[in-house]
């Protein structure tokens, strides 16, 4: 038997746990208010055609999704140019859920990352760094958390933390449970400064992850899959993580 088959059988055994990190895709899926909600049309039905087929109208950044460099960078890499080996990575989870429970405008810091390293060792080259905030447990309006004036409030990355990951470490991608890379209030000063910086470094990110609370901070592997759409600036993603019990 193939060694790879043996490895796969082992991964599917009770020794390992598999966790879905993506929101289901439907009309209730969280998404930026400037984007239309998913539309679905039945093209063929079992009753009329003996086969079922549907047509979907969906924005590229809907629910749990990937942002390749081209989302912000003209001539940056598009979805189909993300290399296969970049889609399966060591997963490092930084738990900041306690801080973000009390401070909805919190910006993830370099100190947060260094504190994680003091416990777990230096972030490995080529890893995926995800910030756990438990934000994905919020539903409806609470996900964007607007104040009485309609201004959203949710945490995100500081640009200094992203520079640390890109310039002092060698990560491949980052992810978060929140709607955006930057804290919502940071966009009032310079819109999407952190996201623009990250994508300019030829990295990709996954936004609106979920179930990070079900994973250990180290030792898991993340697999990010999405359609191979030519020239696409993003798409809804199906991400899973696997870890040893």
Name a few traits of the molecule:
245 residues, alpha/beta, Glucose Oxidase, domain 1, nine-stranded mixed beta sheet, two-stranded antiparallel ribbon, 13 strands, globular, hydrolase, KFase_sf, KFase/CYL, arylformamidase activity
Question: What is the element layout, followed by pairings?
Answer:
Blueprint: H1 3-11, E1 16-20, E2 39-44, H2 46-49, E3 53-57, E4 65-67, E5 88-95, H3 97-102, E6 107-108, H4 110-120, E7 128-132, H5 141-144, E8 156-157, H6 159-168, E9 173-176, H7 193-200, E10 204-207, E11 220-225, E12 235-236, E13 238-244
Parallel strand pairs: 5-7, 6-8, 7-9, 9-10
Antiparallel strand pairs: 1-13, 2-3, 4-10, 4-12, 5-11, 11-13
Helix pairs in contact: 4-6, 6-7
Task: Describe this protein's structure.
α6 (159-168) runs parallel beside α7 (193-200). With 245 residues, the chain is an alpha/beta fold. It has one domain (3-244): 3-Layer(bba) Sandwich (Glucose Oxidase, domain 1), CATH 3.50.30. Helices cover 21% and strands 24% of the residues. The strands form three sheets. The chain has a nine-stranded mixed beta sheet. It has a two-stranded antiparallel ribbon with strand order 2-3.
Can I get a quick summary?
This protein is α/β, with parallel strands linked by helices and 245 residues long. The protein has seven helices and 13 strands. It has a single domain (3-244), classed as Glucose Oxidase, domain 1 (3-Layer(bba) Sandwich).
User: How is the CATH topology named?
Assistant: Glucose Oxidase, domain 1
The fourth-level CATH homologous superfamily is Putative cyclase
**What's the helix count?**
7
> pLDDT under 50 segments (min length 5)?
none
Secondary-structure element order, N to C: HEEHEEEHEHEHEHEHEEEE
**Count of structural domains:** 1
CATH architecture assignment name: 3-Layer(bba) Sandwich
N-end to C-end Cα span = 25 Å
Strand content: 15-25%
Strand order of the largest sheet: 1-13-11-5-7-9-10-4-12
Global morphology: globular
Q: Main sheet, how many strands, which sense, barrel?
A: 9 strands, mixed
Mean pLDDT: 97
Structural class: alpha/beta
Can you give the helix content as a percent range? 10-25%
The counted number of beta strands is 13
- CATH class, please? Alpha Beta
């Amino acid at each position: 038997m193939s060694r790879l088959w043996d490895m796969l059988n082992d991964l599917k055994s009770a020794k390992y746990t598999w966790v879905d990190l993506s929101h289901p895709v439907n009309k209730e899926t969280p998404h930026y208010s400037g984007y239309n909600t998913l539309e679905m049309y039945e093209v063929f039905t079992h009753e009329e055609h003996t086969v079922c087929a549907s047509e979907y109208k969906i924005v590229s950044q809907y629910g749990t999704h990937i942002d390749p460099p081209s989302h912000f960078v003209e001539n940056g890499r598009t979805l189909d140019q993300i290399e296969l080996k970049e889609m399966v990575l060591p997963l490092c989870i930084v738990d900041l859920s306690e801080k973000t429970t009390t401070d909805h405008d919190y910006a993830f810091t370099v100190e947060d990352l260094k504190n994680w390293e003091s416990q777990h060792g230096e972030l490995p080259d080529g890893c995926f760094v995800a910030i756990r905030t438990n934000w994905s447990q919020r539903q409806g309006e609470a996900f964007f958390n607007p104040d009485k004036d309609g201004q959203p409030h949710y945490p995100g990355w500081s640009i200094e933390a992203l520079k640390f990951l890109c310039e002092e470490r060698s990560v491949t991608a980052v992810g978060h449970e929140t709607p955006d890379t930057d804290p919502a209030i940071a966009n009032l000063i310079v819109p999407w400064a952190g996201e623009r910086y990250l994508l300019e470094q030829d990295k990709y990110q996954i936004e609106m992850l979920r179930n990070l609370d079900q994973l250990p901070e180290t030792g898991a592997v993340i697999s990010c899959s999405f359609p191979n759409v030519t020239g696409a600036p993003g798409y809804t993603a199906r991400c899973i993580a696997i870890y040893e019990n």
